[in-house]
Amino acid sequence: MIRKLIAPRPGEQDAASAAAQVRAAPTPRPWRQRLAGPSTPMIAVAALLVLVIVVEVLTEPTFSSPANVTNLLRATAIPAILAIGMTMVILSGGMDLSMGSILSISGIAYAKCVEAGWPEPVALVVTLGLGAAIGFGVNGLLIGRFKMSFFVVTLASASAIGGIALLWSGNRQIDTSGSELASFLGNDAWGNRIPYGAVLAVVLVVVAALALKYTVFGRSVYAVGGNPEAAALSGVRREWVVPAVYGLSGLCAALGGVMMAGRQTIADPSAGGSSIVLYVIAAALLSGVAIAGGAGSVYGALIGTAFLQVLSNALALKGFDNSWQMLMTGLILLLAVYFDRVRQRLAGFR
């Protein structure tokens, strides 16, 4: 009672306040900070990738053969380019479920242009413009300008665009074996060893990473996905950033469609099924792209794509069919989402 009536002297009050702050401050936990770090998933997946490659080289002689390595690089190029667009969309806080349908209709559009006698470079530019226009004008504006749910918009556009691709092609595959440009992008290889498509994918990944890190647009993408309210207060115009991101996603899907037409020598209206979309999402999330947006990198998406592709190749060489590869992709997607939640919780303990 007496102690309550005695006011503490100034020095004693400061000391008590400092002590209270020390007691209230969370104990530093470096291991949690390391696990919650933005680069941790990418480093972990890169380590797993190296481990799988080493095991396969030691146990499966076919894996390291030049022909298999070339095929592996060729197969990785298309999902790697798709992963660039999908990563940007996820960073902005969305997801593009229509990417597979845009890929399908782009392959059909390119084949139709070439069939009509258009020069192949013109057909390529028109096809890329079509993909970007669908992404920007349909998905992007509905999500960014009219505030509609990305899930509903991209799911609906996936169904509609897929239907248009079937109607436009007459529900048939179109021969593209005569297209030198499509073959160059999707099938040909320098010295029969290094596919040009794989080189293009690496170049585009580097360009996208630099744009995200050093340009106003790139920082706006992270800001819109990380904290939309703060981004709006800072003057970032979400209503234009989001359509631009979906436009780039459509552009990547269109390029993937032309490359696939060149690789398979046919334009298939059902080439971009839902499995390739899930595959690309899994590749992006696996290496640390936050599903809520605002964190991650396209380098991580490239590593995730390479890991999934190497794992699929290893399973195929051991005799497992596509059903096992689909099962693996689904499980990895679930694990990636779970670990993303764990990282978010650990980050909350900082």
TrEMBL record:
One of its GO terms (molecular function) is transmembrane transporter activity. Residues 15-25 have a biased composition (Low complexity). Residues 1-31 are annotated as: Disordered. GO terms for cellular component: plasma membrane. The chain crosses the membrane at residues 40-59, 71-91, 122-143, 150-168, 194-212, 240-261, 273-291, 323-340. The keyword Disulfide bond does not apply. The keyword Transmembrane helix applies. Its main location: membrane. Keywords: Cell membrane, Membrane, Transmembrane, Transmembrane helix. It is a multi-pass membrane protein. It comes from the Bacteria. CDD domains: TM_PBP1_transp_AraH_like. It is found in: Cell membrane. This is Monosaccharide ABC transporter membrane protein (CUT2 family). It comes from Amycolatopsis sulphurea.
